[in-house]
Design a protein that fits this description.
The chain is mostly beta strands and about 140 residues long. It has one helix and twelve strands; from the N terminus they run βββββββββαβββ. It is about 10% helix and about 35% strand.
Length: about 140
Amino acid sequence: MIQCTNGNLCVYSLRILSLDFSCSDIHAMALDANSRIWTFINWGRPFRLVSPSLDCSSPGTTPVQIECSLRFSAVLTGSGDVYAWWLYEGTLWDQYWKTVGELDKDESAKAVVPDGGTVIPCHTWEMNVQRGLYSGLALRE
């Protein structure tokens, strides 16, 4: 959930220990204590990036640091590999909007402060990525 005070400060309360946090102008990411990557684009709907490339089964697939840029995100793994993805393009963006559209239809997943309340309920979800992460300096598709 997100707790808002005085109409100015809002705090996400996902009950996760964050090891790293990065912000850009249009999104933010957190790396939790289990090396899971969380992305924040809109109120109340943070999602976890799930990919075989980042499944924590070896140092090469375990995220240790994250970075947000205006249009892309990147992660450094325990073996020194760097993966980058462009969330706002192609299949990742399509998947994001498809899921957000489905959540908009579900009353229990609305990210709206109830009348007189100060808490925006959070509904977390997973973005499963089979393709779309690029290792090293690979070019976009």
